[in-house]
């Protein structure tokens, strides 16, 4: 693989003029790499450019969340959606696991190329930040470590998802080599690694990143409150909006996710428990109230540890979910088998607020811009939630303490208005996992995690007849010249 694409975001200054523009990037005249990394602001601009690129339509703005990854998870009945790109690729390719379908390859190819391009920019920033003079930065060593730590976390986060898409899950004990794990810049030639080697790199990078970002977040912990982590002072500053960045608890959550994926439940539990203890002490990640949902908080963002940001989300949603055919019929992605999914529990907030009367997913639909909840919800991309942390801890500890595991799952159910559920009679791990998976399928709609959950567990995706394990592995693009 040749890592020879020019850096696209190092030369882009970032505007911090308002809460809803902290990630807006505007191109100006090209400047040299040395000039970019000659000031603290240059480092900030590069890092914010990475976040900006990850919020694009081919990454977490659509394909990695409510787009192709959720189509692969059979979340939608896609036959009622428009045929314009990527609709036909969804309907004829992803929904039937026909990865040879004409033009389907454009979807994974765009993910691969944009993902590794972001990795290259992370690596360039890391290489400079590790040797940078702390006096370049406003907060000296604390800021230098924060920049390196966030870039390191993003490098691991991206390549972990590349592994989850383009390689088998660890549970299958794969023996081959599948993708590279890029840690240097520039990378002229890289070697594909085994799943085990990639996971070792992911986990090590996340562990290192945690230590680096802790230096800032541990002394600025109040910035993680819901009142502050997705907002900031007038004019905005780089050190605000920690919920839009790889903060300490977001990195920790992704680390717990990685440990569980890698069949390390004890390690996953320990990290998840640290986050749960923090929540118990601070109440920073409480579940969203019905009053906030009624005001437009359909992302239920109160418990989101980290989210990305794009003002184009609702436009991308309209292109697939708000289209009329020649006869005036509305075309949209219908959430599949809703009655079975919610099993009669109509009080569930996820059904009441996040699905329309015709079972259209409303998470990415335009919300009321007259409320702060609606404005934020319209532009926010969920990346990892407190609910997932409860799921991880529950699955990881059931064998040792079923009552503790049940309590964690009940935390999510109660937070989503299912207060009368009784799980106390569950004694078998298989029965408990059925209940957890059922809840997670509701929770993760539109967030890209359902396909990966079934892949991690090596379970067939529901509603698919004659499931084949190879459906879990997308082909690495023919052209790796990124």
TrEMBL record:
The keyword Membrane applies. Keywords: Cell outer membrane, Membrane, Signal. It comes from the Bacteria. Its main location: membrane. It is found in: Cell outer membrane. Residues 336-457 form the RagB/SusD domain. Residues 22-213 form the SusD-like N-terminal domain. Residues 1-23 form the signal peptide. InterPro entries: SusD-like_N, SusD_RagB_dom, TPR-like_helical_dom_sf. SUPFAM superfamilies: TPR-like. GO terms for cellular component: cell outer membrane. Pfam families: SusD-like_3, SusD_RagB. The keyword Signal applies. Belongs to the SusD family. This is RagB/SusD family nutrient uptake outer membrane protein.
């Amino acid at each position: 693989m040749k890592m020879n694409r020019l850096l696209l975001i190092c030369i882009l200054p970032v505007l911090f003029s308002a809460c809803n523009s902290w990630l807006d990037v505007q191109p100006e005249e090209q400047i040299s790499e040395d000039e970019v990394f000659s000031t603290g602001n240059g480092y900030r601009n590069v890092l914010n450019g990475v976040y900006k690129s990850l919020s694009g339509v081919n990454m977490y703005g659509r394909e990695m969340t409510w787009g192709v990854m959720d189509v692969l998870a059979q979340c939608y009945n896609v036959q009622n959606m428009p045929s314009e790109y990527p609709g036909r690729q969804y309907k004829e390719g992803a929904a039937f696991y026909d990865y040879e379908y004409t033009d389907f390859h454009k979807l994974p190819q765009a993910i691969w190329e944009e993902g590794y391009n972001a990795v290259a920019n992370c690596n360039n920033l890391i290489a400079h930040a590790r040797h940078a003079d702390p006096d370049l930065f406003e907060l000296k060593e604390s800021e230098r470590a924060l920049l390196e730590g966030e870039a390191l976390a993003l490098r691991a986060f991206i390549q972990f998802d590349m592994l989850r898409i383009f390689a088998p899950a660890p549970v299958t004990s794969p023996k081959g080599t599948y993708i590279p794990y890029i840690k240097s810049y520039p990378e002229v030639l890289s070697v594909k690694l085994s799943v085990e080697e990639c996971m070792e790199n992911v986990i090590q990078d996340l562990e290192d990143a945690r230590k680096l970002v802790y230096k800032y977040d541990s002394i600025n912990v109040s910035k993680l409150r819901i009142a502050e982590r997705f907002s900031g002072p007038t004019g905005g500053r780089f050190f605000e909006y920690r919920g839009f960045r790889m903060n300490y608890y977001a990195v920790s959550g992704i680390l717990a996710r990685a440990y569980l994926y890698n069949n390390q439940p004890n390690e996953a539990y320990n990290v998840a428990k640290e986050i749960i203890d923090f929540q118990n002490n601070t109440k920073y990640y409480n579940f969203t109230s019905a009053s906030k949902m009624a005001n437009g908080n359909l992302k239920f963002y109160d418990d989101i540890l980290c989210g990305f940001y794009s003002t184009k989300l609702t436009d991308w949603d309209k292109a697939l979910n708000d289209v009329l055919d020649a006869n005036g019929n509305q075309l949209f992605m219908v959430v599949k088998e809703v009655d079975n999914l919610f099993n009669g529990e109509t009080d569930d907030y996820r059904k009441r607020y996040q699905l329309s009367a015709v079972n259209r997913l409303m998470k990415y639909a335009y919300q009321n811009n007259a409320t702060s909840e609606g404005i934020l919800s319209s532009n926010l991309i969920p990346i990892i939630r407190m609910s997932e942390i409860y799921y991880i801890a529950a699955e990881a500890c059931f064998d040792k303490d079923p009552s503790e595991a049940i309590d964690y799952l009940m935390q999510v159910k109660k937070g989503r208005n299912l207060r009368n559920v009784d799980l106390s009679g569950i004694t078998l791990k298989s029965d408990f996992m059925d209940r957890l998976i059922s809840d997670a399928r509701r929770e993760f709609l539109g967030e890209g995690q359902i396909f990966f959950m079934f892949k991690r567990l090596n379970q067939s995706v529901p509603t698919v007849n004659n499931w084949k394990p190879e459906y879990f592995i997308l082909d690495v693009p023919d052209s790796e010249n990124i």
